[in-house]
């Protein structure tokens, strides 16, 4: 029998962010994961911390998360680029949404760019945009590096990692696994898609299902700037910060006419640059039991549109994969307390990298992360936080 202050189930970014902040509070922490290393959603994604695109009412949470990423990067040495994101406006409706957003948030969050400026920023002089924007506060990490490196850093400083061990039940400070029981004052369960197996009633109450996303990694041609993060018109229709702008409905109508194939696959066309190349995606399909196969037509569609924007004539694809994350039909964050000692936390949309440290802060009851925009006194309690951006 082993007892500690805090047990965390799940070594994805949400579990690790919680472990990082708890370790900084001086608590004894154990992390249990069914795998031998982080291989879940947290390594399959773009590594794009899209703070700016989140809705107005979760900007405090987003900024707390941003400060957490900065602290984790400073401590662990992981790459965390503060290069922001670029959004070329290829049409007038896209430009209108960017103009409205820049007026609404101000230049600290969104700076409008001329057609030539945005073309140069994305490395394609023939882009043909009508304008664009730079979102300077967005950050980037390498998803293949971040979670494993944070786990290693924590392990070197005394956080216990129990790998290859499946948690089968959590109640009142006791964590039962296929390798025996562990005990703690507090247990935080961050199982991502594993929620349905561990707490089926919570998963069913929120309509939890799997979202699958077609992704590719291509070699980065020399003309594409290193550290690039690119969002597109489909992102403006998807992230709630942009989608709340008055011009968003005209943008959606325009997209449906111009790009019905992208709309059909629920695309959020994005690119990020990591050490291994350019990450390209994504589409969205929702199911309780998703198809395991990658649809080549979707992968080719996304590749075609991205390489068109970036002026890449002959892309060299190194990898393709089907990313998975937990999605819900009614919320973007499940944060529940099945008993006094247990917290269950699952991000049920594609924004868990962005908000991980902010959510971890809420889970631990507000740890001392110094934020640029501090959390206000009337911030809702953890259970009331409703996130709408994805
Ligand atoms: C293709 C793709 C693109 C994305 N792009 C972005 C993006 O650009 N920006 C962004 O903010 N977010 C993005 N996301 C979403 C983001 O990746 C997720 O929201 C986030 O990684 C969820 O982290 P997590 O720790 O909850 O889950 P995970 O990383 O899946 O970790 C859960 C862990 O729990 C473990 N586990 C589960 N059940 C058990 C059990 N019973 N016992 C022991 N261990 C268990 C698993 O093994 C796993 O290691 C994207 C996701 C995908 C797939």
From TrEMBL:
<keyword id="KW-0285">Flavoprotein</keyword>
<dbReference type="InterPro" id="IPR017741">
    <property type="entry name" value="FAD-dependent_OxRdtase_HpnW"/>
</dbReference>
<protein>
    <submittedName>
        <fullName>FAD dependent oxidoreductase TIGR03364</fullName>
    </submittedName>
</protein>
<dbReference type="InterPro" id="IPR006076">
    <property type="entry name" value="FAD-dep_OxRdtase"/>
</dbReference>
<dbReference type="Pfam" id="PF01266">
    <property type="entry name" value="DAO"/>
</dbReference>
<keyword id="KW-0560">Oxidoreductase</keyword>
<comment type="similarity">
    <text>Belongs to the DadA oxidoreductase family.</text>
</comment>
<dbReference type="GO" id="GO:0005737">
    <property type="term" value="C:cytoplasm"/>
</dbReference>
<feature type="domain" description="FAD dependent oxidoreductase">
    <location>
        <begin position="5"/>
        <end position="361"/>
    </location>
</feature>
<dbReference type="GO" id="GO:0016491">
    <property type="term" value="F:oxidoreductase activity"/>
</dbReference>
<dbReference type="InterPro" id="IPR036188">
    <property type="entry name" value="FAD/NAD-bd_sf"/>
</dbReference>
